[in-house]
């Protein structure tokens, strides 16, 4: 079951490795709901748009969206230089890929101390460009059970979302959920492919009028 969340607490330890079954540690409380509700609130559902407007955050129109994304992409790439994370501009949104091997320890949903600095810089940039919704999406490789991978993906996305909120990003902008092993971007038959599949994506979607 996909769970959307609005966040709660994270930290500790970084190593590389694969997401295999085990007693991993997760931080924060999870508020769960069904898949239908999840798809209704993610990517700028009415509740989140209303939260932005209620907080005095404006909505973008027309050509402003492209300029907004280009400027924010440049700032994020500066934040992430040398970390192994990267930014994709997909025309209507930005997707920041956080590789699992640099963001979390094996079997853990606690953010690695060495990656908290770059995430804090990202949080500053997100506050400098407030006219957007931020979806945190966790992914794993195919090793381990479906249930285990689903939970780990959710908890990792939650940890990053929680961190952003703790850094002052407006909670009404942020939602998190996990896709488990269901959306690989590489083959799970090789170690390199599995490493690519273990990731958290920060999806930044302009809030448009």
UniProtKB/TrEMBL annotation:
Entry annotated with the keyword Ribonucleoprotein: no
Keyword Phosphoprotein annotated: no
Main location: membrane
Keywords: Cell outer membrane, Membrane
Pfam families: Gly-zipper_Omp, OmpA
Ranges of residues in domain OmpA-like: 91-208
Compartment(s): Cell outer membrane
InterPro entries tied to this protein: Bact_OuterMem_StrucFunc (IPR050330), Gly-zipper (IPR039567), OMP_bac (IPR006664), OmpA-like (IPR006665), OMPA-like_CS (IPR006690), OmpA-like_sf (IPR036737)
Gene3D superfamilies: OmpA-like domain
Protein name according to UniProt: OmpA family protein
Native source organism of the sequence: Paralimibaculum aggregatum
Phylogenetic classification of the source organism: Bacteria, Pseudomonadati, Pseudomonadota, Alphaproteobacteria, Rhodobacterales
């Amino acid at each position: 079951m996909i769970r959307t969340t609005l966040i709660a607490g994270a930290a500790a330890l970084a190593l590389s490795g694969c997401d295999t079954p085990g007693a991993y540690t997760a931080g924060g409380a999870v508020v769960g709901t069904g898949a239908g509700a999840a798809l209704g609130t993610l990517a700028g559902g009415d509740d989140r748009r209303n939260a932005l407007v209620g907080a005095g955050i404006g909505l973008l129109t027309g050509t402003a969206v492209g300029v907004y994304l280009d400027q924010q992409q440049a700032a994020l790439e500066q934040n992430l230089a040398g970390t192994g994370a990267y930014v994709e501009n997909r025309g209507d949104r930005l997707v920041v890929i956080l590789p699992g091997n640099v963001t979390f320890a094996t079997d853990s949903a606690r953010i690695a101390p060495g990656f908290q600095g770059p995430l804090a810089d990202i949080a500053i940039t997100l506050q400098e460009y407030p006219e957007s919704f931020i979806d945190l999406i966790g992914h794993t490789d195919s090793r381990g059970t479906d249930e285990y991978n689903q939970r780990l993906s959710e908890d990792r996305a939650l940890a990053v979302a929680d961190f952003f909120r703790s850094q002052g990003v407006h909670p009404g902008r942020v939602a998190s959920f996990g896709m488990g092993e269901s959306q690989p971007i590489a083959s799970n038959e090789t170690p390199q492919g599995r490493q690519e599949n273990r990731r958290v994506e920060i999806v930044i979607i302009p809030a448009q009028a």
